[in-house]
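Q: Convert this sequence to structure tokens.
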Amino acid sequence: MIAVGKPAPAFSLPSTSGKTVSLSDFAGRKLVLYFYPRDNTPGCTREACDFRDHHAALSEAGAAVLGVSSDSLKSHAGFRSKFELPFDLLVDEGNKLATAFGAYGEKLMYGKKVKGVIRSTFLIDERGRIAAIWSPVKVDGHAQAVLAALAGAPVSAPSAPEREPAAARTSKPKPASATRKSAAPKRAK
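A:
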């Protein structure tokens, strides 16, 4: 299993730049490598747009960003163009790289155990070693957590698992006030 301080698995994958991108291309530079399940899905779109919106700050912190999924180059190109992503997306055919990083395996989806990409992000340092891991990733606030780590903040325990989409829930969650029992005893009438 991959761990902080260990060398990142080497890779050479096709990218939306039209070139093959390799880990060695980033020697001497930090790299934010994030794995996501699919282009054009709600959580993956929010995550990509969050990295897009924080791209300037990530670059100023000395880090490049790459997104990775098993979608085709055509799908990636459309996704990148549609959301004006300023970073490349890599094609991980057969999820081989995701498997090497531990970002592919058993997970819960809509309450069922399935095999698939586990939304994960790896911060790789200038020497090609893993500096931080977030897995599974909770999308909201994730780009800010990566920025904080780049600024030297400690990385907390793995992010909380993503919530299932609202459409997948069978009932709406009750407000806290409706589920909390009052600490004060009820008065008899």
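The CA atoms of residues 30 and 43 lie 25 Å apart.
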